[in-house]
Design a protein that fits this description.
By secondary structure, this protein is mostly beta strands. It contains 1 helix and 30 strands.
Length: 528
C-alpha cells in the first residue's frame, strides 16, 4: 500500500507546535504509538493559565487517538520526550522546566500508567531529574528509542546551553523477572568446525511450514590433511545430529596456542532412517505481531468542549479553549463592566464566586450580568439654574410664561419646584434629552412628585419617558397627573417598564395642556 491516509492526532487553535517525540510498541494491548507534544497555548494565553502545554497522545490498536495532560501553561515546560517501561507498564515524560525569563533551566519528569487511560499525570512541575545550582540552563533531554525494562533501566542525558557541559542520570526500574527472549536461537559453529552438508536451523521468526524433519544420521569426522604447527592434533569429538540446533564449538583443541589449519570431510557411517516427522503445533514463532482481538475496546472519549455564555456586559477569564481533555481543570472568573453587576453563574456552576470545572464531558456555563440601577435624569430635583433663569439646567421649556418655572415656596425637595399654569390653547412642556443607549430587555423605573390646584379633567397633565433608536420611537411610558386639588406633593410612580428594542437616546417630557389650574413638578427620576 503506497497511499498515505490522514488520521488527525491533535487539532484546534494554538494546539499544534513543532515539539514532538514519538515511541512505538508492537502487539501491545495498551496502544501502538505514543507521542509527547507541546502545544502553542502559552502564546495565546496568560502565563498563569491552566490550559495544556505538554500532552501525551496515544494511538490505540483500533486507530483511535486519546490524550492526557502532562503539564500546563503555568508549569512553563518545553521540549518533551517520552519513554516506555513495558515491564512495569509505565510511561515517562521528560521535559525542560524553563526558569523565569529563560528558555532553559532544569529537567523534570512525570510518569503514569500505560494501561489505565483514566489515570492522569500528577499536576505541578513533577520530579527533578537533572538540576544544578551552578548550571542553570540545562535543556534538550535525550534518551534511547527502544522500550525499557528492569534489565535496561532508564538513562537520559541533557546539556547546559551556557556551560556546554553534559549531564546524565539513571532511574533503576524494578525487575520482575528475566526478559523474554526467543529460545530457538541458533549457535553458529566456530572456525574449527568447518562442516559440510550441515542443515541450516530456523531462526526465531521462522514459522514451520509442515516440512519433514531430515533423518537422523551418524557421521565420522576424518582429517584429510595434516594440520601444521599443532603440537597435538585435534580429536573430533563432535558427532553432530541433524537437529535444528547445530553443534557448539566443543572440539576446540586444547593446549594449542594457534588453531590448526586442517580440512575435514564427513563420511556417513550409518544409514539414516528416512521417516518424516511432521512439525508439532508448539513451534509457534514468538516474534510475530499479534493483531488486536475483539476484547480491545477504544479509549474513553478524551476531548471535550466547554461552552461559555454571557448575559449582559462583563468579562469572563480565561476565555474557553477549543477543546479540553479528560481531567483538565478550568477556573472561571466573572468581572462586570462599569455600570453593571455580576449576579451569578448558571449551568454547571452556581453562586457568584470562582467557577471551578473539571472536564470529563461536554459542559456549559453562563455568566449573568445586569445593569446597576443608576439615576439617569440630570437635575431632576430642579435645584440648579443659570443666574436669574426660571428654567432648570439640562431642561428645555416650551410656551412657558413669566409666571411659570422656578418656584421656591412650594417644593418637595431641594431648593425649588417647577410651576406650570394652564392657559387656553397652550401646550406647555419641559423636556430633557439623555444621550445613552441600551438593548431590548433593559428595565427602567420612572417616578416624579406633583402638587395641583383646580386641575380640570379636560386636557393633558402627564409625564413621559420615550426611548428612540436614532429618530424611531421604540418604547413610551406615560404617567398621568391627578386632577382636582391636592395641596401636598404626592408621588406619581410608574410600574417598572422594559425596553422593547435597542435604543440610542431617552427623552423625559413633562406636559401641561389645560385651560386652567396649576401643577408643580419635583423630584423627577428615571432609574436604569
Amino acid at each position: 500500500d503506497s497511499a498515505w491516509s490522514l488520521n488527525p492526532a491533535l487539532q484546534g487553535p494554538s494546539y499544534a507546535d513543532d515539539h514532538m517525540n514519538i515511541k512505538s510498541l508492537q502487539a501491545d494491548s495498551s496502544g501502538q504509538v505514543y507521542a509527547a507534544v507541546k502545544t502553542s497555548l502559552n502564546d495565546a494565553n496568560p502565563s498563569t493559565s491552566s490550559l495544556p502545554l505538554i500532552l501525551l497522545l496515544e494511538l490505540d490498536n483500533n486507530g483511535s487517538w486519546s490524550r492526557r495532560t502532562v503539564a500546563r501553561v503555568s508549569d512553563n515546560n518545553t521540549r518533551p520526550i517520552t519513554l516506555l517501561d513495558v515491564e512495569n507498564r509505565e510511561v515517562y515524560v521528560f521535559m525542560t522546566y524553563q526558569y523565569e525569563t529563560q528558555t532553559s533551566g532544569a529537567i523534570y519528569y512525570k510518569k503514569a500508567s500505560l494501561d489505565d487511560k483514566g489515570l492522569q499525570f500528577p499536576q505541578g512541575l513533577g520530579t527533578p531529574f537533572i538540576e544544578f545550582t551552578t548550571d542553570t540552563h540545562i535543556n534538550n533531554i535525550s534518551s534511547t528509542k527502544q522500550p525499557l525494562n528492569g534489565t535496561t533501566n532508564l538513562v537520559a542525558f541533557a546539556g547546559d546551553d551556557n556551560s556546554r557541559y553534559y549531564f546524565h542520570n539513571v532511574i533503576d526500574l524494578p525487575n520482575s523477572g528475566p526478559t523474554a527472549t526467543p529460545t530457538n536461537t541458533s549457535v553458529p559453529p566456530t572456525a574449527t568446525d568447518i562442516l559440510t552438508n550441515t542443515p541450516v536451523p530456523p531462526t526465531a521468526t521462522d514459522t514451520p511450514t509442515n516440512t519433514p524433519v531430515l533423518p537422523t544420521a551418524t557421521y565420522t569426522l576424518t582429517p584429510t590433511s595434516t594440520p601444521t604447527n599443532t603440537p597435538v592434533p585435534p580429536t573430533a569429538t563432535n558427532t553432530p545430529t541433524n537437529t535444528p540446533i547445530p553443534p557448539t564449538a566443543t572440539s576446540t583443541p586444547t593446549n594449542t596456542p594457534v588453531p590448526p589449519t586442517a580440512t575435514y570431510t564427513l563420511t556417513q557411517t550409518s544409514t539414516p532412517t528416512n521417516t518424516p516427522v511432521p512439525p508439532t503445533a508448539t513451534n509457534t514463532p514468538t516474534n510475530t505481531p499479534v493483531p488486536p482481538t475483539a476484547t480491545n475496546t477504544p479509549a474513553t472519549q478524551n476531548e471535550y468542549i466547554l461552552t461559555i455564555n454571557k448575559i449582559g456586559s462583563g468579562t469572563i477569564t480565561p476565555t474557553a479553549a477549543t477543546y479540553y481533555h479528560y481531567g483538565d481543570t478550568v477556573q472561571l472568573t466573572a468581572t462586570a463592566d462599569t455600570g453593571w453587576m455580576f449576579t451569578g453563574w448558571s449551568g454547571i456552576c452556581t453562586g457568584t464566586g470562582v467557577c471551578n470545572i473539571t472536564m470529563n464531558a461536554d459542559k456549559s456555563v453562563t455568566a449573568n450580568f445586569k445593569l446597576v440601577p443608576q439615576e439617569r435624569v440630570k437635575n431632576g430635583g430642579f435645584n440648579t439654574y443659570i443666574r436669574t433663569s426660571k428654567i432648570p439646567t439640562y431642561w428645555k421649556a416650551v410656551n412657558f410664561s413669566a409666571t411659570d418655572g422656578k418656584f421656591t415656596t412650594a417644593k418637595k425637595e431641594g431648593t425649588a419646584s417647577e410651576k406650570i399654569t394652564g392657559v387656553t390653547g397652550k401646550t406647555k412642556t419641559l423636556t430633557q434629552t439623555l444621550a445613552f443607549s441600551g438593548l431590548a430587555g433593559d428595565t427602567f423605573n420612572f417616578s416624579f412628585w406633583a402638587k395641583g390646584t383646580f386641575i380640570p379633567t379636560a386636557g393633558a397633565c402627564k409625564a413621559q419617558v420615550m426611548l428612540y433608536n436614532v429618530s424611531n420611537l421604540v418604547t413610551t411610558q406615560t404617567v398621568n397627573c391627578k386632577t382636582g386639588t391636592y395641596t401636598a406633593f404626592q408621588q406619581q410612580k410608574s410600574q417598572p417598564f422594559t425596553a422593547t428594542g435597542a435604543y440610542t437616546k431617552v427623552v423625559i417630557k413633562l406636559t401641561y395642556s389645560k385651560a386652567s389650574g396649576t401643577v408643580w413638578f419635583d423630584g423627577v427620576s428615571l432609574m436604569r
